[in-house]
Amino acid sequence: MNSRSYPFIIYFFLLPVLQVMVFDQFNLGVQLIPQITLLFLIFYPTDAEQTIFLVIAFLYGLYSDLLHSTMGIQAAACVTAAFLRPTIITSVFGKNHGYVNIRLQQTPFIALSAYSLNMVLLHHLVYYLLGLASWPKTLWGIQQFIFGSLYTLLFLIAIMFVLRKNKQ
Amino acid sequence: MQQLVNVIIRFRNGLVYVLLISLSVFLLQQSSSYHRSLVANAGLYFGTQLNYIVYSLSSYVNLRKTNELLIEENQILLDQLLSEKKLPSDTLSYSTVRLQVIRNSFINSYNYITLRGGKNIGVEKEMGLVTSKGIVGVVQFVENRYSQAISVLNKDLQINAKLKNSNHFGSLIWSGDNPSKMNLIDVPKTAVVNLGDTIETGGMSTIFPPGIPIGTISDFIDNPSLSFYDIEVSLFQDMTNLGFVFAIDHPTKEEVKSIQQTINE
Fold first, then answer.
1. I need a labelling partner for B81 at 20 to 30 A (CA). Which of A75, A127, B42, B163 fits?
2. Distance, in angstroms, between A19 CA and closest chain B CA?
3. How would residue B87 be classed by pLDDT, with cut points 50, 70 and 90?
């Protein structure tokens, strides 16, 4: 673990608590909440050991599950997003940029948004697939997945935009 | 052997992923109440403290709404008290415990309600939760000062219910999409079903006494190939807006359970 990973110990515990206390209140009905806990997976150092990141993502999801009584849904979604994160980074930032850390200040905002969108879509796909797990409700599930992803992305972009402006 | 170790090292991330995703799905799918209660108890411990802070902060904002709700509930209780005085009290008396809702989830498929009040005020497992408008859930875990209930908006919960104007019973379940609608299944086709008919608790368990209102029929499917109706029920209680709830203690719960146990043996 390098020194850049240390603040993430605080984020690990803080973000799910913030999610429950603040962002769960912004729900737009069943299964539609802005899941800002994804910020942890988006900004976790990319030069960190991938195997350890997978385990951390699993524990992070499990911790969110405990706070929401969702039993493994977040754990599965987080570990999938973490597993495919290197592929997303390569596809968004290109092969040469692949293992350069993603930073709020340095990374172009459009690229950051595109990367976040991919992470959100991947996470939400697993989240809604396991959360609903019912064929008769497939159309409703797809609707929830699309609106849920857009709602989360809206919040993530807003948070990143505000933090970026503040730091400048 | 060396080659095998090399393969494992090379594909370690994939293997770790498969292992962790399997563990997640196992956690999700396992239906053993023992494991569920282990995780739920841990969640209850951390979650209640956290949710109480949220509740304390938001209670000031919702003070006006809470007052209105209390007045409304007091009025209904007073009405009940007065009407009971007029009738001969030959029925069993159920005792109730008042609880504050400090967290009410309705955004998942399996929702829970966290309540302030536990063993210290006499809350027990499997007590039914109601408001003046209808049923809300069933107490599942009880700690000293807090308890957690399984919400009616939980795909795992089935409640015995019946049509108010006849004695046709069925099971009330939640399909997981709309928090204001539930489904009454297994009602035989011999029953006369009309839109707007009232559904109430059936009283075939020690959780809810019979006759507690649930909602009205908003739609029903009369499939000729099936011998049962699939009825959509519009709930009286707005499950997204809960302030205070009442836990009902069945007066002869232990006797009924002991009889059921004797029959099973």
1. B163
2. 11
3. very low
Phi-psi region of B91 (alpha: psi -120 to 50; beta: other; left: phi over 0): beta
How much is the mean pLDDT over chain B?
81
Size of interface A-B (CB pairs under 8 A): 107
Number of Cβ atoms within 10 Å of the Cβ of A29 = 14
Chain B contacts of A83, Cβ < 8 Å? 13-14, 17
- Select the residue of B28, B54, B177 nearest A30 (Cβ to Cβ): B177
Contact B107, A31 (CB under 8 A): yes
List beta partners, residue B246.
B98, B130
CA B73/CA B17 separation, integer angstroms: 52
Helix axes B33-61, A50-68, angle to 10 degrees: 70
Mind listing the pLDDT tens digit for each residue in B210-264? 888 899 999 988 888 888 888 999 999 999 888 888 888 877 777 777 777 787 7
B117 domain-assigned: no
CB within 8 Å: A66 and B179:
no
Residue B22 lies in a domain: no
Residue B81, pLDDT above cutoff 60: no
Is B240 among the domain residues?
A: no
For residue B176, what are the domain limits?
A: 159-235
CA atoms within 13 A on the CB side of A36: 22
Cα of B218 to nearest chain A Cα, Å: 19
Report the number of distinct structural domains present in chain B: 1
B150 is a domain residue = no
Q: Which fold has domain A3-167?
A: Arp2/3 complex 21 kDa subunit ARPC3 (1.10.1760)
A52 lies within 8 A of chain B by CB? no
Residue numbers in A near B51 (CB within 8 A): 20
Residues A54, B39: C-beta atoms closer than 8 Å: no
Q: How far apart are CA A98 and CA A142, in angstroms?
A: 31
Asked if A33 is an interface residue toward chain B (Cβ–Cβ < 8 A), one would say: yes
- pTM > 0.90: no
pLDDT of the residue at B46: 67
CATH number at residue B220: 2.40.10.350
Q: Which residues in A lie closer than 8 A to residue B14 (C-beta atoms)?
A: 83
